Amino acid sequence: MTHTEAFFGYPRSCGRSGIRNHLLVLNCTGLTDAAARRVAAALPGTVFAGTMYGMGMVGEDAAFHTAALTGMATHPNCGAVLLIGADRTRLDQMIAACQAADRPFAALGLDDTGHDAYLLSQRAISRGAQLLRDLSAMRPEPCPISDLFLAMECGLSDPSSGLAANPLLGQVADWLVDAGGTVVLGESIEWLGTEDALARRAGSPEIGARLKRAVADRLALADAAGLDLLGTNPNAANIKAGLSTIEEKASGAVLKAGSRPIQSVLAYAAPPETTGLHLMDAPSYSPESLTGFVASGAQMVLFTTGLGNSYCSAIAPTLKVTANAGTAQKLPCQIDFDASGAFTGRSLAQLTIDLVAQVTATASGQRTFGEIMGEGAESISRFGAAI
Amino acid sequence: MTIPAYQIHPDDMVAYMLREAPRGATVATPNRTLLARADIPVFHKIALHDIAAGDTVWRGGWPIGHATRNIPAGAHVHTHNLASAYSKTRKIT
């Protein structure tokens, strides 16, 4: 076994293997947020995620929210799930999802404790301790690289992102697709100006039309809000760093997608139906963007930055890459991979070999700085008003 | 002292400074040298040719906007002279 053929992960009875074996404390309703955080804090080594919302969401907003919670509850990196919620309706939905995915879980609701949140926490801590003990008996095993599902993100970009860091991610995307794995890229507004080129790579005319419509819809959203993209995307920090227009930023950003055919345009938080390269029609702000990828099943995020960006997913280890030597030097406990050699003669091929090695090491358990420093959160996007 | 600039594609109209260039500095890409007409911060763009107002500016095979005024070779190219095709406030002056 070489490091580019396999990694040490946690096979699941359903779906892809995990690259971590978290106990996820999943807060399923906004009412129980504090109680669920209390539970996670009492059980070191757990990962906390969830929602601040609950009843009253409607239409596609409600559907995306349910999809995102389901995706997190059944995520490959979570060996077991502690479901916490106020009402049985939402809990029963998540219980069904865990059962369908054959994922060990315990579920505790306020309805069952006479609406005593403290009693809920006590019971949940006890159940969580049992689940953690079970998880601790598991050992990582060799898993095929084709089990990997990587998400590609950029945040606080500068021109070095589009010149070197994003093309490097594109090489890693091509490597993984060729190895039978799965890749997703989101941030639809950052496809702007490149839609025709992306559409030519789409697996069918319908997929091409869908990705073009996704960009047009985001642009219409900005127009309807009376927003000029200049100042929003690129934002003030991007502009100060040297990015002048959305076209300049976008044509550098989409290089993260590499060069392979586009298999589908996913809705927010939707799991891809095939391996290969997928786009997700989603907001570009990193917290919502990353949670969309994670909920769709991505086990790891490759995240390029120009100026530095500390944000990480809680569930999926988030590997930070910069090609800005100054940023790598300034942020030694944030940047996991320094790609600035691209500007001093190191070839893209050599950098790709190095980053692939780091991706497989991370998949096999090496921690990212984000994990070590305790960064990490999940934030489910909202798509409309609630009742 | 020559300051390096990074050019992606031979047809590019701009290159990216790999170090800050003070006004008057000699800037070199693999294909040419030129004089910086302004202080240009690291990773900001320098015009490789004279660019006429209204012209589309190409980089890496992609249009990245259009010149809002005449841009001489060696000038700093940024929001003061380059605008997005998607900007509602775009003006040719």
TrEMBL record, chain A:
<feature type="domain" description="D-galactarate/Altronate dehydratase C-terminal">
    <location>
        <begin position="145"/>
        <end position="379"/>
    </location>
</feature>
<dbReference type="GO" id="GO:0016787">
    <property type="term" value="F:hydrolase activity"/>
</dbReference>
<comment type="similarity">
    <text>Belongs to the UxaA family.</text>
</comment>
<feature type="domain" description="D-galactarate/Altronate dehydratase second">
    <location>
        <begin position="9"/>
        <end position="117"/>
    </location>
</feature>
<keyword id="KW-0378">Hydrolase</keyword>
<keyword id="KW-0456">Lyase</keyword>
<protein>
    <submittedName>
        <fullName>UxaA family hydrolase</fullName>
    </submittedName>
</protein>
<dbReference type="Pfam" id="PF20629">
    <property type="entry name" value="GD_AH_C"/>
</dbReference>
<dbReference type="Pfam" id="PF04295">
    <property type="entry name" value="GD_AH_second"/>
</dbReference>
<dbReference type="InterPro" id="IPR007392">
    <property type="entry name" value="GD_AH_second"/>
</dbReference>
<dbReference type="InterPro" id="IPR048332">
    <property type="entry name" value="GD_AH_C"/>
</dbReference>
<dbReference type="InterPro" id="IPR052172">
    <property type="entry name" value="UxaA_altronate/galactarate_dh"/>
</dbReference>
From TrEMBL, chain B:
<dbReference type="InterPro" id="IPR052172">
    <property type="entry name" value="UxaA_altronate/galactarate_dh"/>
</dbReference>
<keyword id="KW-0378">Hydrolase</keyword>
<feature type="domain" description="SAF">
    <location>
        <begin position="12"/>
        <end position="83"/>
    </location>
</feature>
<keyword id="KW-0456">Lyase</keyword>
<dbReference type="InterPro" id="IPR044144">
    <property type="entry name" value="SAF_UxaA/GarD"/>
</dbReference>
<dbReference type="GO" id="GO:0016787">
    <property type="term" value="F:hydrolase activity"/>
</dbReference>
<dbReference type="InterPro" id="IPR013974">
    <property type="entry name" value="SAF"/>
</dbReference>
<protein>
    <submittedName>
        <fullName>UxaA family hydrolase</fullName>
    </submittedName>
</protein>
<dbReference type="Pfam" id="PF08666">
    <property type="entry name" value="SAF"/>
</dbReference>
